[in-house]
Amino acid sequence: MFAKVVLVFTALAAVVAAGSSQCNAGPVQCCNTLTSASNSQAAGLIQQLGLSGVGANVPVGINCNPITGIGAGSGSSCNANPACCDNVYTNGLGVQCNPINVNL
C-alpha cells in the first residue's frame, strides 16, 4: 500500500512539475469523481449553479480542487482523479474535465 501511495505521489509530482503544459485552462484538479453531466449528483450541482447548455455527455468532475504544489498543504496531492477542467466552480463542480494519465 505504501509503495502505491509513493508511486501516485511521484506521478503527481511529475504532473505538477509540468505545470501549464498539462492543462490549458488552469491548474491540474483533483476530483473525487469523474463522470458525465447526466449523473444525478452532477446534474444537481449544475442546476444549483444555474448553468445552461451543459449537455448530458459533457465530462464533469465532482468535488474538484486544484493541486497547487508538492509538499505545500492539502492541495499538494491527489488520492482520487487528477484532471484538467475548463471551468471549476465554487461548489467543486468541474466542467469539461478530462482525466490526466499519470502512469510513468
TrEMBL record:
The record's Pfam families line, in alphabetical order, gives: Hydrophobin
Q: Which cellular component terms (GO) are annotated to the entry? A: fungal-type cell wall
| Coiled coil location | none
Q: Which InterPro entries match?
A: Class_I_Hydrophobin, Class_I_Hydrophobin_CS
Q: List the disulfide bonds.
A: C23-C84, C30-C78, C31-C64, C85-C97
Which Gene Ontology MF annotations are present?
Answer: structural constituent of cell wall
Signal peptide boundaries: 1-18
Q: Identify the main location.
A: secreted
Q: Which UniProt keywords apply?
A: Cell wall, Disulfide bond, Secreted, Signal
Location in the cell: Secreted, Cell wall
Give the domain of life. Eukaryota
Q: CDD domains, per this entry?
A: hydrophobin_I
Family in the record: Belongs to the fungal hydrophobin family.
Q: List the protein's name.
A: Hydrophobin
- Tell me which species this is from: Serpula lacrymans var. lacrymans (strain S7.9) (Dry rot fungus)
